[in-house]
């Protein structure tokens, strides 16, 4: 994509309304624009990142055996009355009436809808287990939406729901999601630590939330510093095998949120304990028959008797993750995207757009990068070199290829790594090969 044609409304100054780094940089980098309090439009650059994050989430859910569906944003109040949550959920739920005066709501979560779907379709134990997920926009009417996409009212969420015959099956489903979540965040370059957590309004007994460490995190977290050295992706996972050893391995090291941490009972020596700020990016629950019993979601057994389904719920804040990624990956100049979620792999900068030789060399390189399948953003604008470099640093693409008169004369390009700041002058073909091989 040529930047001269791209819709990228960057801002030079920090917006006054933005209180945290991710909100400031998402606005400055032209990723989002506020529509109303806590509700944002995603512009081309931001939307590309959002889709990259969403795809990683989807791939790991599919890999675990979960199956994708799509449920509606608007739900019937009657379903929530069946579960008993309609009056209990609180003012965060946006309640509405349609033209026939039927009570509806903009879904903050989907336990009721998915339970009704499975209740009507699955009647026998032979049809279990099942895990169904979707990636859908949700709405919670936060009293004080703030911090951009980190605490908005409308947000993109992946939620999965498992259905099993008994508690042992539900625990196997929980273990699968534990491993899938660890892999999902690791693929994004995040160290997400599972911490025992309160189940909140979702309900249930077994619950973990996944926290990434960031200076601007919302709450204090505590963990064994050995967590910082773990490599989730190094583990070979068989989702059809016994994942209980993985679960025990990844939950054995101490990790707790402020609410769950008791300094007097902490088993970790102070010298081995990391105290930091955390950002919650995912939450998993095992809540047994909390929804299946009141909603009549039962299956028949071989002897003719019936039992309510054992259920679990597993959420990842997809849009929230974009903000969390920035909180964990930035410097004074802007965003530093991990390669797995970057909107473009490389920024191609022609520092002399009016120079015919530079333009020809940059155009040729642009064509070669596209032919090689590399996602490239080509800054062909008639702007100063300083302005171009500032824009590239702000939007945080992993690599920059810089074309200038001296390099063209010498047959070289400057290659810059955004994360490390390292710069190299390389022959044009070598620079191209380096980018293509990354």
What does the model show?
The model has no long low-confidence stretch (mean pLDDT 94). The chain has helices at residues 21-28, 44-64, 77-83, 111-121, 167-187, 244-252, 292-295, 318-328, 356-371, 385-395, 405-410, 428-437; strands spanning 32-36, 39-42, 67-68, 74-76, 94-97, 103-106, 130-139, 154-164, 192-196, 206-213, 219-224, 255-257, 273-288, 298-300, 306-308, 310-317, 330-331, 334-335, 346-350, 376-379, 399-403, 412-417, 423-427. The chain is α+β, with helices and mostly antiparallel strands and 438 residues long. The protein is 31% helix and 28% strand. It has 12 helices and 23 strands. A hairpin with a 2-residue loop joins β17 (330-331) and β18. The longest helix is centred in the N-terminal third of the chain and has 21 residues, at 44-64. The strands form 6 sheets. Strands 3, 7, 8, 9, 10, 11, 12, 13 and 16 form a 9-stranded mixed beta sheet that branches. Strands 20-19-21-22-23 form a 5-stranded mixed beta sheet, with helices on both faces.
Unreliable residue stretches = none
- Tell me the structural class: alpha+beta
Q: What would you call the shape? A: globular
Cα-to-Cα separation, first versus last residue: 19 Å
Q: What characterizes the major β-sheet? A: 9 strands, mixed
Percent range for β-strand residues: 25-35%
How many beta-strand runs? 23
Discrete helix count: 12
Quote the average pLDDT: 94
Helix content: 25-40%
What Rg is obtained from the alpha carbons, in whole angstroms?
25 Å
């Amino acid at each position: 994509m040529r930047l001269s044609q791209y819709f990228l409304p960057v801002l030079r100054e920090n917006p006054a309304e933005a209180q945290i780094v991710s909100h400031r940089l998402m606005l400055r980098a032209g990723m989002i624009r506020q529509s109303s309090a806590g509700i944002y439009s995603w512009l081309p650059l931001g939307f590309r990142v959002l889709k990259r994050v969403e795809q990683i989430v989807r791939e790991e859910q599919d890999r675990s055996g979960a199956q994708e569906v799509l449920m509606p944003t608007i739900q019937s109040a009657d379903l929530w009355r069946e579960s008993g949550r309609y009056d209990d959920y609180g003012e965060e739920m946006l309640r509405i009436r349609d033209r026939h005066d039927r009570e509806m709501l903009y879904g903050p979560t989907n336990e009721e809808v998915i339970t009704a779907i499975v209740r009507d379709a699955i009647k026998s134990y032979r049809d279990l287990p099942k895990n169904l997920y979707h990636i859908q926009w949700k709405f919670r009417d936060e009293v004080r939406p703030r911090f951009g996409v980190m605490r908005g009212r409308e947000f993109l969420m992946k939620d999965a729901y498992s259905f099993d015959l008994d508690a042992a099956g539900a625990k196997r489903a929980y273990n699968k999601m534990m491993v899938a979540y660890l892999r999902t965040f690791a693929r994004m370059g995040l160290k997400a630590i599972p911490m025992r957590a309160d189940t909140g309004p979702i309900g249930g007994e077994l619950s973990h939330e996944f926290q990434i460490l960031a200076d601007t995190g919302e709450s204090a977290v505590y963990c064994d510093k050995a967590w910082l050295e773990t490599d989730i992706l190094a583990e070979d996972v068989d989702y059809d095998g016994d994942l209980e050893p993985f679960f025990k391995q990844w939950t054995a090291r101490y990790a707790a949120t402020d609410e769950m941490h008791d300094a007097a009972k902490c088993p970790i020596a102070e010298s081995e304990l990391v105290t930091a700020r955390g950002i919650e990016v995912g939450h998993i629950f095992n809540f047994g028959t909390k929804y299946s019993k009141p909603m009549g979601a039962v299956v028949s057994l071989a002897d003719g008797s019936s039992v309510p389904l054992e259920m679990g719920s597993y959420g990842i804040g997809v849009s929230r993750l974009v903000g969390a990624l920035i909180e964990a990956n930035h410097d004074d100049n802007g965003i530093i995207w991990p390669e797995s979620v970057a909107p473009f792999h490389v920024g191609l900068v022609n520092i002399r757009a009016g120079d015919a030789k530079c333009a020809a060399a940059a155009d040729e390189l642009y064509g070669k990068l596209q032919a090689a399948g590399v996602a490239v953003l080509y800054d062909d604008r008639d702007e100063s070199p300083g302005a171009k470099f500032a824009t590239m640093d702000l939007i945080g693409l992993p690599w920059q290829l810089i074309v200038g008169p001296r390099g063209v004369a010498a047959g070289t390009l400057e290659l810059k790594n955004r994360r490390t700041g390292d710069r190299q002058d390389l022959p044009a073909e070598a620079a191209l090969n380096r980018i293509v091989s990354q």
